[in-house]
Structure formats: C-alpha cells, structure tokens
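Incident review: delayed structure delivery

Summary: a single-chain prediction request sat in the queue longer than the usual turnaround. Root cause was a stuck worker, restarted by the on-call engineer. No data loss occurred. The affected request and its eventual output are reproduced below so the record is complete for anyone auditing the incident later.

Affected input:
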Amino acid sequence: MKSYSVKGNIVDIFNKEIFFGEVVVEDGKIKSIEKTTDDGLEIRDNTAPFILPGFVDSHVHVESSMLVPSEFGKLAVVHGTVATISDPHEIANVCGIEGVEYMIANGKTVPFKFHFGAPSCVPATIFETAGAALLSEDVDKLLQSDDIYYLSEMMNFPGVLFNDEEVMKKIASAKKYNKPVDGHAPGLRGADAKKYIDAGISTDHECFTREEAEDKLGFGMKILIREGSAAKNFEALIALMHDNYEMMMFCSDDKHPDSLVLGHINQLCARAVAKGIDVFKILQAACINPVLHYKMNVGLLRVGDAADFIIAEDLKDFKISQTYIDGNLVAENGVSKITTTKGGVINQFNCKPTNPADFIVVYNNEREIPVIEALEGQLITNKLMVKPVVLNGEIVSDIENDILKIVVVNRYKQSVVAKSFVKNFGLKKGAIASTVAHDSHNIIAVGVDDVSICKAVNLVIKEQGGVSSVTNENEMVLGLPVAGLMSNEDGYKVADAYTAIDKMVKEELGSHLNAAFMTLSFMALLVIPHLKLSDKGLFDGDTFSFV
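Output delivered after worker restart:
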C-alpha cells in the first residue's frame, strides 16, 4: 500500500480559497486534505509552493504535435498537463477506425489521461480525397466504447443547419450514449448559431472575435480559448473570462513539438494572470471545467479523487516543479519521468514520385487569377484577385510580391496535381512540403519554382510522410511514418529536428511566418473560409463550391 504526503499552499478552486496544508495520497487516490494549524490557529507559509489540480487541454489533435500519444504525454506532463480531450480526426482521415484504435492503444502505454472522441466528419467534405470514411454506424460503434468520451467537432455545420440525415444520426448517437458533442462553426452568428447549438452541440473552439463568442455564450454554448502553433485567439477572447469563466476552457487545438517543449496550458494561465483575470477563474477554466463537461477520469484535488495534481512554484508564472498522475510522480523540475517506447507504424500511402512538369500552370489569357491570402495566427484566409506573372506561356510564382505557387498531390492514388497560388509565405527561394494537410492529409507544398516544389514533394513521398524544406544548395526532411502525421521517435528528438527544419525555412528560404508548416497544413482545410486548395481544386469556403 503506497502512501505519502505533500505539503504546501493548497489551492481549493471550488471554494476559492488557498490554505497551507497537507495532501495525503494512498493507492493513487487522495486520502485526506488537511489545513495545518497550531493551537487552533491556521499556519501560513508564503514561501511554500502551490498544490493544485492538473491542467487539461480541452481540445487537441495530438497528431499535430507530430508525436504519437505516448510521446505527447511525455512532453506535456512537464508543464503540469495531466489530461487531454483529444480528437483523433486526423489519423481517422488517413486510416479510419483502425487509426482511432491505434491512438487509444498507444495512449494507454503511458500514465497520461487521454480522452479520445469519435470523429464526426471523416472525410471532412466531399470535395477532397481522404483515406477513409466514417459513416454514422461507424461513429455509433465508436461511441459505445468506454474509451470514447464525446463526439468530436462537428465541422459540417451546414449539415446541421439543413438537417443532413447522416449528420443528425451521429449527433443522435452521442445523445443516446449521453456523451457531449463538440462544435466547430467559425463565424456562425445569430439564428444559425442558435439552431446549431440547439441541435445539441455544446462547445466551440473556432471563435475568432469577441462578438462571435458572446453570441454563442448567450445561446448556452461553452467557448474554448484556443492558442495553438498557428491559430491564436487568446487576445481576442480572454477578456470574456471575467464574467463567463464557468463557461470557458483553454485548448491548443494544434501544437507543434517545438512549441510543446516550451509550454502548454500553463502558459495560457500565466498570460491570463497578466491580463488581470482572477486566478480562481483562470484555474476553473484550465482544470475544472473540462473534467466536469466531458466526465473525464481526472481527479480535482478532492478527498477520494484520483491523485492527479501538480505543484507550482507560484500562481503567476506557473512554473511546474512536480506533476502527479494517479499518485505517481511523472515529471519533476522540467524532466519527464515517462520513458520512450518506440511503437508500431500505421499508414496509408500510394503515390509515385512526381516530375517538375506535373506542376506547370498553363496561361490561358487570364487577366486576373484567384489567390489565397494566408493570415498569420488565423485559419481563415482571404480571397484575392491578382494579375498573373507569365513566363513562356506559364503562370509562375511572383516572388517580388510574395505570391507563390501552391500545390496539393493526392497521396492515396495517382491523380492530376491541384495547383493555385498563395500570398504571405515569404519564401525567396526553394520550397516546403508536408503530408500534414488538414483534413485529408494529402501532400501540400509551396515554392518559388516547379523544380523546387517537385524536389520537396518527392522527399516526403520517399519517407512515406513527413515535412521537407529544399533549396538548390540544401535539403532537409523530417519523416513522419505513422499515418504520414507522426513520428514514433523520442519526442524531444522530434522537436529538435522540427526546430532545425523550421529554422531552415526562416533563415534560408526567407519565410516570415511564425509556424510556416502549420500554416501550410491549413491551406487545404476546406471547412474554414474563404479560399483553400484541395487535391480536387481551388475551393470557395463561402459558397462551398470549387472556383
């Protein structure tokens, strides 16, 4: 019978009080929590660390970290994260139910509390080629499992608004098993937002303006403040926490490995404190609300709960000195105690190497061409109409005005390459490519010329998945053999490799984007307006049709 105790300033979020005391742990559960007194007087120790419940990421695609779940957990516990609400939507688009089962099984190999959902939109749309499809009967089967905690983000909000039969069956299944439904409805307001929420959809992590979030809060929806490697909505939404903290949570959604090494939900707590938000409101959003909303198997620092708690040096910077899960010390002083066990590989890849000629865009006397405008820190894009640059009867990249060729190559079968142009990547030479391309994860690449694009694409084809960066003088590739999305290597090594290739993109190719690969991965995300590129062509997210 394993028993021990920890002393410090105990943070009781439910009763909004902090007191010096002792937490006694026995067999992985909290046996007692006692205030320390002397002759009936409460003892205070302002120098002692703080004991509080562990942090929860309320919506994350583990796949976007480029790490398998076990390695994601290894890195996250260092920052006080003990659990996630994880949508395996990305791997499901590549490998179907088998991919979801892979994530669950891999997550169980480490002492970290993953709570996976049943992907609701695989494929995300009919306007792209994915590796699998999950019908309503597949989703119902997943929701019956105790390993599945919710129906993942319902991106097909038009399907909800127009009562699409398959969409409504999936929502009905979640209700049948008493599991919450996550939302995804960027920009939806007013009567449409109300209808979407009234269908039973309980959260949204896609609000990019305060007004939109206020609208949805008013209809009873819970709002997740997202701050990932590409999409950042913290600044726009954090002020709402003053009055709506019981209806809000923090999430990362998509977080690259180098970013995860630096911090996680603890960083958002520190930023919220700096904004003047009451610390108990912040911790309610970071620790309590996700556990209650999703009925998570996570302790909340109460007698009888699982001993999932963290020790922080202060409640300002939230530097974490220790993390405990089920009573086990899993991280201490910045070092994870979770060990790497290299797991198996699952994938689906079926395309041959490309040739530069595959990427030619023939000039047909167009006066203007539609161009995707990528926006730093946002998933939404703008649609521009631009005069093309023509050379030898071909439309080519306009490096001077930062309008570059972007392509999507079908990775599941041989097909014609989809081609367009994009502004704001900033590349002065070379190209970058990736098999992380939401949501179907075909190969996406951007570059200054066809030879470079071809070279970058072929590097990731050779690896059966990965991210690559090339110039005439240099090339780098980070292989992602698990579904073309994740590495099964040590998470810190993957983070170092990603940092190196990201540095090359910025310093050698000239990109000014904070996370060029993450931004690139969203240029094929058709469910986010306004203009995107799938393997089937250029797509207008407002009319939901090809340009």
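Verification: Residues 55-296 form a domain with the TIM Barrel fold (CATH 3.20.20.140).
Action items: add queue-age alerting; document worker restart procedure.
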